[in-house]
């Protein structure tokens, strides 16, 4: 795949939408991901490292044990071995609900620069059943009234495949950097496999506080950025929020919830009836690309025109691909997005450093982070931290990538120093 045609303009009329709908498919999805990844100077479509780069990024399918089960993986590995006795803990980036690894295209360069200096490896993967990983059947055997059974089965689908991927990659321990529902699964994974996780960095995590809260999962396809368009890096504000500041954000979320548009209320109703936002879009058939285009153009308006088109094409192909693990959501979350088994009631078992990062215009309730840091402290783990990033919404890592990259790298540096101290 040497030449990639540029992404077409975002459709704003039915005929263009229909043409776009017919072009969707697995091949186009691969092309749309590659467009975003090729912005990285160290990305090698041919999997051949460049001697001028300290790292190389390659794309592979990591085959799992079950037939036709595989995990789409981008590996960023050093072109020279680590200097000294320290072998840094690998970092794994995990996306949120219905998204994909290329959502991190604004973060990978900064992480790769750090990794190249330290001789570290960074991986970004698609969850099984999402994005470009295998779209395998997803089903729950537990009865509808068996809440814990349903939650356990849904969680297992993801964390078991992550553990299988880890074994295939021969990784002993990992630092997990994860967004939204991916952050939820990362905590669950750490609870089940505590010896395999050294540190968690949770970006606007889902399912944390007890309900009801003010998160709205329907906004995965109706989010307007909450007044925080994608930043070009000129806003680097990072704060450790006070109780007053958190309450201000929650007040804003309450107001936003009261002012929901008719379309958003419809999404929420269908969600509560067991539909996923992506199923709703598929149901619109030829109108789907135009509907996704309205979201893409609005939500990622701060990107360049070319980046916005590329993101739209990527999101469109993810959204219209064969349905799979997206149906996990109704088994994990109650209507209103609070979890059946909130993480705040489970996270105290973890003994590792955990960092919560929210946008100051986030629609994910930051009270969960506050409660979790306190839960960790009460359990004797003083390594919990929480930050607010300015000029950022739910996609905090994309909205203000400069500040978020700074926080992530700070945590990776702490992990590096911890490993170095243990081996000295």
From TrEMBL:
Residues 212-258 are annotated as: Disordered. Residues 92-208 form the AB hydrolase-1 domain. GO terms for molecular function: lysophosphatidic acid acyltransferase activity; phospholipase A2 activity. GO terms for biological process: cardiolipin acyl-chain remodeling; lipid homeostasis; phosphatidic acid biosynthetic process. Residues 233-257 have a biased composition (Basic and acidic residues). InterPro entries: AB_hydrolase_1, AB_hydrolase_fold. One of its GO terms (cellular component) is mitochondrial inner membrane. It comes from the Eukaryota. PANTHER family: PUMMELIG, ISOFORM A (PTHR42886:SF29), RE40534P-RELATED (PTHR42886). Belongs to the peptidase S33 family. ABHD4/ABHD5 subfamily. This is AB hydrolase-1 domain-containing protein. It comes from Agaricus bisporus var. burnettii (strain JB137-S8 / ATCC MYA-4627 / FGSC 10392) (White button mushroom).
